[in-house]
Amino acid sequence: MIFKYKHIRFILGWCALILFTQCSDSSDDTTVDQDAIDQATIEEFLTENEIVAIADGSGIHYSIIDTVLTGAPAAGSILSIYYSARILNGSAYDENTRSNSNDSVKLKQGVGAVYPVGLDVGLGLMREGETFKFYIPSSLAYGDYSFSSLIPENSILEIEIELAAVQNEADILSEQLTAIDAYILDEALNNTTINPLDSIEYLAAEQIYYKRMVAGTADDTLRQNDFATISYIGTNLLKEEFDRRPSAEPLTYTFGANAIIVGLDDGVSAMERGETALIILPSHKAYGESAFVIPSYRKQDFVDLEIIPQYAAKVAPYEVLIFETSLLNNP
Q: Cystine design at 214: which of 94, 116, 170, 276 (Cβ 3.0–4.6 Å)?
């Protein structure tokens, strides 16, 4: 789970995403026919329901529900959205709406970290404050893959998006540092009577937080390319566990060799063998944009199909991570 992955940068060419997209210039007549069927079905639906929609060159259609001409453009930015997704002419299969008093969810547009890919394309057309409805053909959705009876194969998707905010990486970091400070206060991490050993420290060069909890062997620190053996429990700010390696099954890796996520390796660099420490990572030192998937509760399917890495099934985009880590004496 904590091994280093390049941030998700899947090619958005429609021929590149196995099972989830299909080549429009393929010699496979079945694929060509399905594309034509989808486009005809969308256009018929729009006509019958008197919906004014724009056909994008990618193959999606979209109708503009609310427009804000002066809003910040979404393309290439970090977006906070509300959404409702349904099969065309069907019932909703996933949603996160303002009316249900939910918090908006974050994602990164335009870097191949949004699924279905047709939604990623559509988001790039929006501005902050706007609400669009997208009609996404199956070739830009899930193709002939089926999520049981909920989303049959070759489904056309209808996804309504409210774009609540457009941000950049600096905005996100500022928000996360504020959230971490609040967590430190709530958990009394600077109270060494409740939480020994030391007060929490912000390592400015590494941009991570560090608290020594159990002392190790003085001055017995790691050097570049040493073997490091660690156990850990990984959680988020809500104390939800996403990964663990107990001391009976520790992880051994090459320290400083870009083998695990950079923020955790930075934290281990401050540790002495035998020490236990709390290491808190802003998202840019962990898994960054991770992956945003609709339906959100079927992320494991995307992992099984090798479209997103394993960590993305449990770590949300732009999530602060906390590792309670022990640096063990190597066997």
A: 276
Q: Is 298 in a helix, a strand, or coil?
A: helix
Helix extents (H) in the chain: 29-48, 117-123, 169-186, 262-269, 299-304
Q: Which phi and psi (to 5°) does residue 232 adopt?
A: -165, 160
Q: Which of 273, 277, 249, 252 is nearest to 263 (CA)?
A: 277
Distances (CA, A) of 232 to 150, 198, 243, 246, 328: 37, 19, 8, 6, 11
pLDDT digit string, tens, across residues 102-112:
899 999 999 99
Does the pLDDT value for residue 30 go beyond 60?
no
| CA 16/CA 23 separation, integer angstroms | 8
Cα(132)–Cα(85) distance, integer angstroms? 12
Residue 115: name the closest of 150, 85, 77 by CA.
Answer: 85
CB 105 within 8 A of CB 294: no
The angle at the Cα of 232, spanning 3 to 238, to the nearest 5 degrees, equals: 95
Asked if 81 and 107 count as a contact pair (C-beta separation under 8 A), the reply is yes
Q: Shortest CA distance to 320 belongs to which of 280, 262, 279?
A: 280
CA distance 299 to 297: 6
Q: What is the pLDDT of residue 16?
A: 35
Encoding tokens for residue 308?
A: 């997103």
| All residues at 6 or more sequence positions from 99 whose CB lies less than 8 Å from its CB, including other chains | none
